[in-house]
Amino acid sequence: MNKVILMGRLTRDPEVRYTQTNNTLVASFSLAVNRRFVAQGAERQADFVNIVAWNKTGEFCSKYFKKGQQVVVVGRLQTRTWDDDQGTKHYVTEVIAEETYFADSKKDGNGDASNFENTFGTTLSDNTEFQVNSSDDDLPF
User: pTM here?
Assistant: First the structure.
């Protein structure tokens, strides 16, 4: 199975072009996807993933996606090669988008903790303590 799900921020506006043979729309952009873990004392690192969206998906991305927005892309991983005019072989790995979604907040586009507070009336912080106050009788299993 070849399925990729990414959430990240657009590093640039989608670039649109059309194929020469049948004038099909193709949108290209890249996502900065944060790595899950951060080494102690180091800055968070990100991977920059090239995305290609065809036809209606590409049209949607070109109309509504802008640099800096957080989005979700569901698709498949694809590698391809080609030879340039000098005979040098080039390799590229990219994600072919099959589904795309907005991941930012509708209100301010940041999706940060302050927006969570505006929406739910509470804040999230690193020092929040959670307690479970239930007996075994309250558990559903």
Answer: 0.71
Q: What percent of the chain has pLDDT over 90?
A: 67
CB atoms within 10 A of CB 46: 14
Cα–Cα distance between 10 and 140 in angstroms, integer?
42
Q: What is the pLDDT of residue 105?
A: 76
Spatial distance between the Cα atoms of 108 and 131, rounded to a whole number of angstroms? 32
Instruction: Give the single-character DSSP code of 55.
Output: H
CATH of region 4-37+45-127, choose from 3.30.40.10, 1.10.10.10, 3.40.50.300, 2.40.50.140: 2.40.50.140
Residue 79 amino acid letter: T
Q: How many CB atoms sit inside 10 A of residue 133's CB?
A: 5
Other beta carbons within 10 angstroms of residue 57's beta carbon come to 19
